[in-house]
Amino acid sequence: AQSVTQLDSQVPVFEEAPVELRCNYSSSVSVYLFWYVQYPNQGLQLLLKYLSGSTLVKGINGFEAEFNKSQTSFHLRKPSVHISDTAEYFCAVSEPGGYQKVTFGIGTKLQVIP
Amino acid sequence: EAGVTQSPTHLIKTRGQQVTLRCSPISGHTSVYWYQQALGLGLQFLLWYDEGEERNRGNFPPRFSGRQFPNYSSELNVNALELEDSALYLCASRKLQVTYEQYFGPGTRLTVT
What we know:
- The structure holds two protein chains of two kinds.
- Chain A is built from no helices and twelve strands.
- Chain A has strands at 3-6, 10-14, 19-21, 23-26, 32-38, 44-50, 56-58, 64-68, 73-78, 87-94, 102-104, 108-113.
- In chain A, a hairpin with a 7-residue loop joins strand 10 and strand 11.
- Chain A starts with a strand and ends with a strand.
- In chain A, 36% of the residues are buried.
- Chain B is mainly beta.
- Helix content of chain B is 0%, strand content 51%.
């Protein structure tokens, strides 16, 4: 069975500083990986995804993530955060196959400090 | 293209009552997922419907049930409400066999008193 661990429940960071949100997964087969963002009082929105190919994935709003198979990680990074990046971020994993469900991590709250 | 819609946006119920939440997927999406987001617990997978059939179910008691209609919209029913059912219920849709991305609605906030 697949699982996702988000290592930090909350990450405070000053505006314009870099940030890394950590995500580790476990699965017995190859995986597809996702990062979603949830702004206050809204549903989730896809930031980026890794299905295959280049291990460095670029997403919306200046975010990127790197798939590391040996470390089973998919950490999310942004070189310079903005106040508007304050939100909760969810890492998710799915195994290939039509009826494989997506498993979400517990979420990391990013608080950008002015 | 219209996104995933959910109704109602907010709901207050009393312990023991029953509730029905509704979700309309993006046009052309056949799969609908339901999640519970309770405070501090992240997203907990509830149910997955595709082409009118239940494809997968999370670790929730049978009083959580649902269905999917021929137009792919879906209902989530919760019977015998308990205080711990208070949560944001999120619906997501997906175009199965085409993409693994799920598109989320804004959610229904359920408060049980």
